[in-house]
Amino acid sequence: MSTNTLSQIQVGSEPTTVVQPRKGLWDLELAHLWDYHELLFFLVWRDVKVRYKQTALGVAWAILQPLMATLIFSIFFGRLAKMPSDGIPYPVFAYVALVPWQYFANALTEASNSLVASQNLIKKVYFPRLIIPLSSVIAGLVDFCFAFIVLIGMMFHYGIKPSGSIFLFPVFLLLAVGTALAAGLWLSALNVQFRDVKHTIPFLTQFWFFATPIVYPSSIVPAKWRMWYGINPMAGVVEGFRYTVLGKAGRPGPMIWVSAAAVIVMLIGGVFYFRKMESTFADVV
Amino acid sequence: MGSIAIQAEGLGKRYRLGSSAPYKTLRESLPGFFRGAARKVRALGSGRADEENFWALRDVSFEVEHGDVVGVIGRNGAGKSTLLKILSRITLPTEGRALIYGRVGSLLEVGTGFHPELTGRENIFLNGAIMGMRKAEIVSKFDEIVAFAEVDKFVDTPVKHYSSGMYVRLAFAIAAHLEPEILIVDEVLAVGDLAFQQKCLGKMSEVSQEGRTILFVSHNMAVVEKLCQRAIVLQNGRIDFQGDTEEAIHHYMNKMVDANKAEGHTFDLSGATDRRSHIGRLLKRLELYGSDDVPVIEGVRLGSGLKLKVHFDLPRPARSFDVGIGFESMFGQRIFTAHSLFEPDRPSGERVGPQVFVCEIPSFTLMPGLYTIKIWLDINHAEADLINYAARVNVLESDYYGSGKAPWNGAFVLKHNWYVEQPPQLEGEVARAASIGAKSGT
What is the CATH number of the domain that holds B312? Predict the structure, then answer.
């Protein structure tokens, strides 16, 4: 084990890996993520498999959660409070918003706790840590699919035909995924340092819920503010869902662009923050 | 091969000391932020910036060539795990760098990422992926893994129903079928039953014979000795020695005992660090004498007498107290235990204050080599003070059997005799044997 013998290294052989203190802030190594796509797949698969193990109702929970919420909202906001619903039957109006919302809220919660929950992995094995919150966000999509099937049944029941712009709906789903991932990246990395985050999430999602036009239409927001309402990306997502899936609500307009811009900013910031904190995860978690 | 697999250049890792909890709550962190800033300003003035920092690893440089099996040894907290964590990229170094040529697989703990609700089959895939195996690779090795782990019948049972032995076997089996060019292993062999450990060892040497590079951390010196050609000894985060395994182990053992002040035959135990003192630091001193009370300086000759004088203190009057002495090989294996309980004629009665117990071994028959001595004091049958690596004793070769042949192989010698007996003879052969005997004149 002689040291200082650089000449011994074969000429032309590049090291596979160089382990050194992190240098540039700009080196995100995102291409490196692709090397681990199989691991991402297996983590998603694990989350999906394990989620409803040892529950009596199993995957029915994926449907029950938004359905129960729809029932409650239809009674209190639809019947009793007579909330306007843009001419759509209130249960469908609420449910179409709850499908992406439940996805978002669950994905956000799971992603935020994901790093702390996987601390055993983080302390023992190397892989890009970004995969952990990413897998939580993707795993939630399975529940989303089940809930979406029920939505189709519901539309059939109420005789609502999808609009011609239904093909745009994946764009809004992507927007919801992006929002969950962006918030998940920030919160999961913060949660490693500050366990306060775990206790904040219930309040955060509750607040976010009311700041999103789920039980009410965004048309009750004054027109001149409506565009800026889109700063909450979930507002854009929900209105986008109502527009593309139900077709009855009006075009959401520039609000969508504001939402998209907000997600992109949050996501880029989240990735940078996450990458910056990543090197300390194993030592701090 | 001869090409470099790992080249570490001045690796260092600094941790911050002080906060008791590894993570912070926001409330603790905010005032800390301001205090931290204030401290930095003060540190600029006084020049004491490193006060609360702790270097778990510093200036660590070494090279490992492809095909080498290198052991990393050192006592707890010497920086072994930190080094492995850096090399396997779990944590980043604070300074220096390591160039790694080849795919690295690390086994810092087997069964990482096992999910109790998933079946054995599912966990093989999940764990394999976590360890860095491709799916196709796992599929092709699946049967081999199941067979190695001996869990064929339970492969579709959730692992939460596995016995702990099965769990560990499956976990190790997956790990053992990783095929990275460089394998980083930490103490995995400390699991499972003896038979399985043997199997793991076999697998490890098989892997090393395939020309793969292994970096191996263990407290089990026997395993290090068996598997590794070279070893690195870490002490307080720095490389203390690197080279041939046997020399490294020797160096390490000497260092362990040197922590206690040794002056020839006298070992001062008052400053011993690796100890469990329940009542206080009662064990004071250990002296070694050979036959005729000659102090043991160089070593004790195989088969000659050894006298150990243990000085200790009884803070309160006690009726029942005992001293135990364990002799351990370089590989950490207990070879022999001497205990005052075994003495039929030991004095009884209440005693208090400084005491000297003498253990006399008329003929010390452990094989030549270096042994460490562990010593402990029991008061009222409860452990009062215990010191690992209290002293060392070197056993020197001698003509023990009086045959001019030095004994080889084994852990100890026993007096034994050989003589010749007439072989038993079958009836028909008696005559023939007699006639042969007559011819050769025996």
Answer: 2.70.50.60
CA-to-CA distance for B400 and A135, rounded, in angstroms?
69
Whole-prediction pTM: 0.73
Phi, psi for residue B84 in degrees, rounded to 5: -65, -35
Which residues of chain B neighbour A18 with C-beta distances below 8 Å? 97-100
Same domain, B229 and B311: no
**Are residues B226 and B93 located together in one domain of the fold?**
yes
- Residue-wise pLDDT for B213-248, tens only, equals 888 887 767 778 778 889 999 988 899 999 998 888
Flag if B89 and A9 touch (Cβ within 8 Å). Answer: no
Q: Are residues B144 and B283 in the same domain?
A: no
Is B308 among the domain residues? yes
DSSP assignment of A64-125 equals: HHHHHHHHHHIIIIIIIS----TTS-HHHHHHHHHHHHHHHHHHHHHHHHHHHHTHHHHHH-
Amino acid in position B328:
E
- Is residue B375, in this structure, part of any structural domain at all? yes
Instruction: ipTM value, please give it.
Output: 0.83
Residues B302 and B387 in one domain: yes
Rounded-to-integer distance, Cα B167 and Cα A86, Å = 58
Position B34 in a domain: no
Q: B213 and B69 in contact (C-beta within 8 Å)?
A: yes
Burial class (CB in 10 A: 0-12, 13-18, 19+), A79: exposed
Contact check, Cβ <8 Å, A1/B25:
no
| pLDDT (tens digit per residue) in B95-114 | 999 999 988 887 766 777 88
Residue B106 to residue A125, Cβ atoms within 8 A: yes
A138 exposed, middle or buried (CB, 10 Å; 0-12, 13-18, 19+)?
A: buried
Q: Which of B329, B288, B330, B340 is nearest to B309 (CA)?
A: B288
**Is the CB of residue A63 less than 8 Å from the CB of residue A143?**
no
> Which residues, 6+ apart, have CB-to-CB distance to B143 below 8 Å?
none
- Residue B234 backbone class (left: φ over 0; alpha: ψ -120 to 50; beta: rest): beta
Among candidate residues B232, B217, B225, the one with its CA nearest the CA of residue B246: B225
Answer yes or no: is B429 within a domain. Answer: no
CA distances (Å), origin A236, targets A101, A203, A213:
11, 21, 9
- Using a CB-CB cut-off of 8 Å, the residues of chain A touching B92 are 19-22, 279
Short-list A279, A234, A22, A34, CA closest to A134: A34
The structural domain count of chain B equals: 2
Are residue B337 and residue B295 in the same domain, yes or no? yes
Residue A282 near residue B91 (C-beta atoms within 8 A): yes
Residues B214 and B71 in one domain: yes
Residues B220 and B367 occupy one common structural domain: no
Name chain B contacts of A3, Cβ cutoff 8 Å.
61-63
Domain that holds residue B337: 261-396
Q: What is the DSSP letter of A20?
A: -
